[in-house]
Amino acid sequence: MSRQWQLREAFGLDNLELRTGEPTAGPGRGQIAVRIRACSLNYRDLLIVRGEYDPRMKVPFVPLSDGAGEVVAVGEGVDEWKVGDRVLGCFAPRWQGGEATKERLRYARGTPTAGGMLAELVVADADGWVPTPDHLSDEQAATLPCAAVTAWNALEGVRAGQTVLVQGTGGVAIAALQLAQLKGARVIVTSSQQAKRERAEGLGAWKTLDYTEDTEWGKTVAGLGGADRVIEVGGAGTVNQSLRAVRVGGQVAIIGILAGVKADIALTKVLMNGVSLRGIMVGSREDFLQMNRAIAAHEMEPVVDRVFAMDEVPDAFAYLARGAHFGKVCIRVS
């Protein structure tokens, strides 16, 4: 028997149901079967379950995009994997490399189209997985597919000695803090909580700022020399401060919309300072492979805030929604 969480008859956390059924059919040609050991939650997953991401999605389906596990069966024609290999699912399994397209992004995990990871057994195409770095636990590895690949993509082109501004201490932010340092950059982190700022400093943050006390934190960052790259997760509520913080010729990587989706932007700051605004939607399988090589070379350990059991998934979502976490929230599946 195999267990999986499904969003059953409608959206909402109350409509999540842990179901036990017959084992999933074995892998077909070009597929592998993976025993999922751990998953991690993203803010996107919470929006999907609430029906706020795309209310046109059809239920039922299995949620969550991020999962780590072990290959338990290999279909005909698969040479890349063998039973026992530890693997991670790609967020957008049809985006193997190159530029993003609507079709590649439309087929993303955690949705009805590509299926989700919150199950004890997942059968999917063999080219939608990457090897797990050997030094990571399953929970640590499960943090990587969405948040870390997003951060890695957002940091493309960052060079040693440059400055990166990271907003908050959630999954993408902490991954960006760690990955930017692998590239030799110094990192400024904003957070309203002293304990979180201290933890960020413990992870190597060069400076930390309390955005509730320093409401003009963009000006403060500019006074420190400005940021070559801003990891923008707030959206409408923070983007104008980000434009004040970014230095001439820098880039604001727009990742999140936690503080709203519509903003009045002073385009003169973009135009006169030669600033680039770049939307980030995770990354390709090739991005994932490159990032994992860097993580393995430096033995970087992703930050796991808390691990919930398989039967505690609603509690895990509620915890994520409170915003108390530092790093990633995980589920131990099997």
Figure out the total of helices: 11
Mean pLDDT across all residues, rounded? 95
How many individual domains? Answer: 2
Number of strands: 15
Q: Please state the structural category.
A: alpha/beta
Radius of gyration: 20 Å
Largest sheet, if any? 7 strands, mixed
* Overall 3D form: globular
What is the topological layout?
Elements: E1 2-7, E2 16-21, E3 31-41, H1 43-50, E4 66-74, E5 86-89, H2 102-106, E6 121-125, E7 129-131, H3 138-142, H4 144-154, E8 163-167, H5 171-182, E9 186-190, H6 194-202, E10 207-209, H7 217-223, E11 227-232, H8 239-245, E12 246-254, H9 267-272, E13 276-279, H10 285-298, E14 304-309, H11 313-322, E15 328-332
Parallel strand pairs: 8-9, 8-11, 9-10, 11-12, 12-13, 14-15
Antiparallel strand pairs: 1-2, 3-4, 3-6, 3-15, 4-5, 5-7
Helix pairs in contact: 4-5, 7-8
Notes on the structure:
Helix content is 28%, strand content 26%. It has 334 residues and is of the alpha/beta class. It folds into two domains: 2-143 and 302-332, Medium-chain alcohol dehydrogenases, catalytic domain (Quinone Oxidoreductase, Chain A, domain 1), CATH 3.90.180; 149-279, 3-Layer(aba) Sandwich (Rossmann fold). Strand 14, helix 11 and strand 15 form a beta-alpha-beta unit. Helix 7 runs parallel beside helix 8. The longest helix has 14 residues, at 285-298. The chain is globular and about 60 Å long. The mean pLDDT is 95.
Describe this protein with a few key phrases.
single chain, 334 residues, alpha/beta, Quinone Oxidoreductase, Chain A, domain 1, Rossmann fold, 2 domains, seven-stranded mixed beta sheet, 11 helices, 15 strands, 26% strand, globular
